[in-house]
Write a structure and sequence with these properties.
The strands form three sheets. The chain has a six-stranded antiparallel beta sheet with strand order 1-2-11-10-7-8. Strands 3-4-5-6-9 form a five-stranded antiparallel beta sheet. Strands 12-13 form a two-stranded antiparallel ribbon. The chain is α+β, with helices and mostly antiparallel strands and 281 residues long. It has a single domain, classed as PPM-type phosphatase domain (Phosphatase 2c, domain 1). Helix 2 crosses helix 3 and helix 7 packs antiparallel against helix 8.
Amino acid sequence: MFAEAAPAQDIHLSSVLDVDFDQLSDTGLVRDHNEDSIGYLSPETPDSARERGWLFVLADGVGGHDRGEVASRMTVDSMVSDFRDAVAGDPLTSFLPRLIQKANLKVYEAAAETGPGGASMATTVVACALRFDRAVVAHVGDSRCYLIRGGRASLLTRDHTVPNEQLRMGLITTREASNAQTTNVLSRSLGPSMIVNVDVADHQVYSGDVLLLCSDGLHNSVRERDIEETLRSHSSLGEAAKTLVEMAKRRDGKDNISIQLIRVKGVERVGMYRGRHYKIR
């Protein structure tokens, strides 16, 4: 089985936002290849931390489509590369959705180039960019981002699935949504169309917060209480990631499983005046 992991990172840049993180991707117990992709970009200097920040991105190639692994890897590579070229100080709430739109177009065009009618290529994506004392989360599909604060996990994203959209419009009840046969049918993803609707939200973060990005191979079988207990039991993000992945494999394991864990160790509080950030002491 294929597993992808990154050693825990401890990036200390003096008075700027300070994080450490770990990530893991596993093929699972049934599939013979991994259609999930994960990636990140960390700043090398305090200036780049303030001008650009950190990026974490996770994509899950849509099962049943051709080359799902190509779509997910293309999305991650595109976003990491474009984030590296970010204009200093560009607002993350507008920049992150633009990166996803560009990645979507690349997947769409790659599918079209395969021949008449094109190949079916699609992927979900969830991305988290951090700068100063803010975390901006953008996503398409059912890959998720959780915030764990004070030992309690809360979901920051909304699954873009057919039952969830019907629930949001009041067409079905919560019980009907949870029992729907279309639970895993996406209402939107990257690749099928030239333009995709991206959800984005900005969140203040505090020292001690943990952000968790994951594919549905994890969240379909691991609950919020499992996440809370695992993080309480493991001070190491690497060990916590392994525990959660193994838990998902024991309970299901039919899908690929990917996770990114980011711990906020310190923040730089800032305000905004006439378009410029200033430090709050």
